[in-house]
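Input record (one chain):
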Amino acid sequence: MKLQPRQQLLELWEAAARASYRDGVWTWGGRDGSNSISDAEQLLCFMYPASELPGFRLDTPDETADDVLAALTVLGDSVEIPKLLLRVMGQYLRTYTAEDGRPLFSGGSYFRPLDDEAKVTPEQLQLDVVDSFSMSVTLALGTLGFLKVFRQSVRRESIRREIRELEDLASKRLSAAMAGLLRSFTVNAFDPGSPAGRALLRTVNQTGAPTRRVLDDLRRELRPVRAGLRDLTIGSGSQLDLDNENLLFECGWTWGIVKDAPDIVTPLDIGPQPKGVAADTPFLYFTVNALVGIADLFSARTRVLSLLNDDQITLAQAIQRRWDLTQSYWRTIATYGRGTWPLEDIPWRTVDEKESDYYSLGVTAMVVQNLVNNRAADVDLGRVAAVLEELAVRARIIRRAVPGDPPVLMHSPGVPINLHGSDSLGPHLVWVVSDFAITLLKRTIWAASIAQNTRMRERLLALADQIWRHIMQRRQTDGLAAGLWDQPGNVFTDIEVRDEDPSWYFSERVVEFLVSAAASSGEPPLRSPQLVELALQMLGEAEHLLDQELVARPLVGGQTIQPKLRSIQASLQRARSIVSDRPATAQALINDALLGLERLSAARDSASEAI
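The corresponding structure, as predicted from the sequence alone:
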């Protein structure tokens, strides 16, 4: 890619530090105000790269890179930066803890009334939301990892005491977030003849096959998922009776704690568990966001640092079962049949008859995640790549928008999601999402990371380059937020709104993408079997010629091999050691060796002719 993830991350850190730390004071909140999600997103702009990329570590002052210190010079030096982060993390954890000790996961200023004239009630502002659960899992794990390593560099007892207190707060928040995710999971069952059933069957039946045959086949395909859902024992989603195989169903996460969701029985201290009001139906957007956060629970870093205790591991295992079942369900639905996939029939239609390219992007995200986990073949990846390309075109990301173009509304003001059940405490609320472009880019780089041949990877990386150029044009160019996101009016002339404050919602997702891009660039290059075979054949010829040269060339007294031949021999030994993983590099070494051997042979022939 033309993208330079390290440089871009450093520039983003510099901009984020400048916007966050003003006149020696940490300033919370961006254009959407301060709430448990926005503030977590602001913190994750720093914590996520520091947690995931060794070159960006801030928890070991003696090992902090010079370019990292230059980017964060506003925050202090290598010793002051982790101390500042310690204070800021403490502010966040204490701010979003209630007087009774319960961690708060409220949506706050992210909640919007469906009716512009209505006013969100104080009770609604305090409603827990899945986005906060998901973000808190990622932030709490990053915080625990940071504290665990930073403690080793600290000698002052006051700071060590602060670290212990923050570890308790972060661990408690992590436990409560996992409990919230278990209470927000839902299974929605319905009759095939109901409007929801007919909509689902119409979505999966891309070939016009008889409905009865499609229904029987779909039931058979979903039988393992149904069986897994029946075995759930804790949290919401476990009370639904799925023994009736005549019913169709869908599973995933709703927007908040499900109404009448049972409390989670656990020895962990998570404080009082609030009652839920969310409708007992899955939402694509919240399902995808939940899956992203949950993946951090069973990442290699979480296991290596032992960030979960035994009781948390029990909750994490229950969540992972839901993660696996949800992935399996949506992969089955999205890729059903032998002809056109339902995923390829854009826009995606939900069971409540709503259609949007954003829903297609949500389903694509789950399919890509499944492909990443299973390292799927490039045949499936090619079909997903075509969907990603079409979504980029339809959203006017890699095509020019005309005045009055409807897709522009997906970027600003965004796609409103009705929060069914929220009206029990006040006016009906909506959740506005405007991250289509960066989410599409994240899925594209994920797909590129598992491509098995260079042509497919180049295709996906070319698409990622185009999307990245679009996103770079949307950076803010002036004010304290310069270098951060999001200013879609820079690209779409129909959008007249200009915001001075940064969108931590969008900027944090850019950080996630850049971290993914940096991680994928560290993977070994693709290995072509044909290239390996050719390199081995070349290596065989070169080694044979070297043996001939060693036999024919007279030796100098006291020397077993001439310097030139020693150099050639070393090159061929290096080529043999890397030929399986880096065949093109091996070929370059072999070519140099062959050229050197040819020159030696030509010189010997010339000497013979002269005699």
